[in-house]
Design brief:
about 120 residues; 6 helices; F-box domain-containing protein; LRR_dom_sf
Length: about 120
Amino acid sequence: MKMNDVWITEWKDLPVELFLRIVSLLDDRMPTVASGVRSGWRDAICFGLTRLRLSGCSKNMNNLVLSLAPKFTKLQTLILRQANPQLEDNTVETISEFCHDLQDLDLSKSFKLSDCSLSALTMA
């Protein structure tokens, strides 16, 4: 395929904006899966992703968010609804430390959180 007089023969040749648009049209688990496939994809997703929903994560959500928050610094929306309480204060503190563009944070059913989490969010 030829785009703007440049031949695109592999995924790595796609413009970052187009790649992020494709990822945004897929289901909510795709950014996490794609970021683990290729370093180029991971870099593009980490740099450009603004919305992430991890509600489907039934185990180890706390560890997953701890590992992702420092990489997804452009997030504006982060949905972390839980069936079973998993998130802990240190995770919310990490989110507040790295996700400065965050406008919408859903922590539904996060019954393990204390006032420390709220304090961290207000200080960020």
